Give the backbone structure.
Amino acid sequence: MRDDSVWLRCRAGHEAREPRLDAAWYNRNSSPVDQWHPTLEDGLRHPGH
């Protein structure tokens, strides 16, 4: 998703956008964003979820 949003998913499968987090936060705490995905589902398929 190109809006730099970070989505959280619980173990039960609920999804929610977290407005306090963005791609810059993700890059600092995980790893650099290496690819943009048009949908959340496409992004989840990328790492094999």
In short: The helical segments are 23-29, 40-45.
